[in-house]
What does this fold into?
Amino acid sequence: TGCPPLTLMVTKIEDTDDGACDADCSLREAISAANTDPGPAQVTVPAGIYVLTPEGDDEDLGATGDLDMYRPRSPGHKLSLCGAL
It folds into this structure.
């Protein structure tokens, strides 16, 4: 068995990043937190429209522009996104 995955709950649709995914957690913050955790992670995303607002390009840490998921490719480092369809 093993430890349950890190579960991160997106709580707002605004695209912010204060460095913490806590009670005030954006999609960007949740992906960033999942990227830094060595084990499996699950990001739960409520229904809504998520507009990525920090403009930028050519960086691969998810700080601006698109979201970057860079989990190691191994069975113990899965990232699951769950949410409304």
